[in-house]
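// run 5 | inverse folding | seed 20
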């Protein structure tokens, strides 16, 4: 029920891809994210004793789902100020309308590679047990996980390539296929040549 309500809400906000100072905002398909979280939770790849963090959270839709349906204490970090403000407004609306209840969902405006982003927000980086990223500066957050996070910390990478990336200090664990028909997003290519892009979730662990 939460998924359907979130889809109804965010369907009004599927817009074109937007370049930002730190990357590109492409709205996530909530059906894909739901499949990804369901597989990761049921497979025991997410430790719910710590924070779930979306690195480059855009308008906050991933953490509203991780919080609202999967009861994960969720944080989104977004560098772009306007996107971060939109994410905060979405969360406030969803809380006011009782779609998000109980489990916290929070937006931090800042650079997810900088220690000061977490320190200033009162977050201990080592207490983040799961990181999520939608192919947006994934090398930088993977490097930070390898450098700063405890052993076993999970990195969930949502991408459109079946070949796992090689991140120093992280071990590739598993890949899930999440293919589903996507809503149209202006400026986003849904195929490479004539081959449709297939949504994937790749799971890594800090070693």
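// decoded
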């Amino acid at each position: 029920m939460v998924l359907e309500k979130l889809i109804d809400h965010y369907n009004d906000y599927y817009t074109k891809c937007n370049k930002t100072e730190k990357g590109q905002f492409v709205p996530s398909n909530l059906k894909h994210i739901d499949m990804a979280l369901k597989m990761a939770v049921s497979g025991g790849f997410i430790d719910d004793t710590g924070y779930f963090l979306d690195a480059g959270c855009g308008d906050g839709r991933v953490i509203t789902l991780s919080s609202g349906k999967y009861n994960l204490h969720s944080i989104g970090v977004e560098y772009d100020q306007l996107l971060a403000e939109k994410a905060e407004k979405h969360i406030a609306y969803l809380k006011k309308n009782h779609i998000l209840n109980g489990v916290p969902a929070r937006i931090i405006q800042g650079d997810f590679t900088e220690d000061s982003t977490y320190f200033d927000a009162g977050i201990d980086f080592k207490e983040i047990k799961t990181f999520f990223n939608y192919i947006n500066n994934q090398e930088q957050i993977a490097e930070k996980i390898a450098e700063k996070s405890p052993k076993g910390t999970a990195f969930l990478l949502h991408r459109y390539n079946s070949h796992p990336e090689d991140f120093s200090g992280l071990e590739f664990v598993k890949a899930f296929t999440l293919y589903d028909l996507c809503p149209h997003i202006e400026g986003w290519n849904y195929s490479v040549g004539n081959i449709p892009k297939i949504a994937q979730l790749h799971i890594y662990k800090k070693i």
